[in-house]
């Protein structure tokens, strides 16, 4: 499968089976995140593999909308960034999440990016602060997002190149 095929196949999967994610697939997803480029190669990101079901349920409740799928995820990967290492921690974390999302698709593992940065819980608390508490992280760490993982309960249809709006491409002469 070439990269464009993987990009077309990549979908946000929110329902998962009880099937375990094979360790070799999980390792490739983590490797993809660690291979992601960072500004000036500073590498401010660390990757926390979350296997604990109670933590996944707590994280699912840390946002008002869009995190419920973590309850059904088999595992998740939080991308944790140290802003003292690089001021581009948001971009670096986002690239790592995107790389892992693509690798999950290539490995036939369902995944969905759960945004934490600049989101709030139902009671108005910052989701990122709640996630740090749940995960036992120091206050200076930042979390752009968490990648939910599981074997997909039904695979959404891949995207098509016909969906691309070429009007979004502008050429500067």
From TrEMBL:
Residues 9-62 form the Nitroreductase domain. Signal peptide: none annotated. Transmembrane segments: none annotated. GO terms for molecular function: oxidoreductase activity. It comes from the Archaea. It holds the Pfam family Nitroreductase. InterPro entries: Nitroreductase (IPR029479), Nitroreductase-like (IPR000415). Keywords: Oxidoreductase. The keyword Oxidoreductase applies. The keyword Oxidoreductase applies. Belongs to the nitroreductase family. This is Nitroreductase family protein. It comes from Methanobrevibacter ruminantium (strain ATCC 35063 / DSM 1093 / JCM 13430 / OCM 146 / M1).
């Amino acid at each position: 499968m070439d990269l464009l095929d993987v990009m077309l196949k990549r979908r946000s999967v929110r329902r998962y089976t009880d099937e375990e994610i094979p360790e070799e697939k999980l390792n490739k997803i983590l490797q993809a995140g660690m291979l992601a480029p960072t500004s000036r190669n500073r590498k401010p990101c660390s990757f926390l593999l979350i296997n604990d079901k109670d933590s996944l349920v707590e994280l699912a409740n840390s946002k008002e909308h869009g995190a419920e799928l973590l309850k059904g995820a088999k595992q998740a990967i939080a991308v944790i960034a140290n802003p003292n290492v690089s001021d581009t921690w948001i971009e670096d974390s986002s690239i790592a999440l995107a790389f892992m999302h693509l690798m999950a698709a290539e490995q036939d593992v369902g995944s969905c990016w759960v945004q934490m940065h600049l989101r709030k819980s139902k009671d108005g608390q910052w989701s990122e602060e709640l996630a740090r508490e749940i995960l036992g992280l120091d206050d200076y760490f930042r979390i752009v997002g968490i990648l939910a993982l599981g074997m997909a309960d039904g695979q959404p249809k891949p995207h098509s190149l016909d969906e691309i709006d070429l009007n979004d491409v502008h050429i500067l002469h």
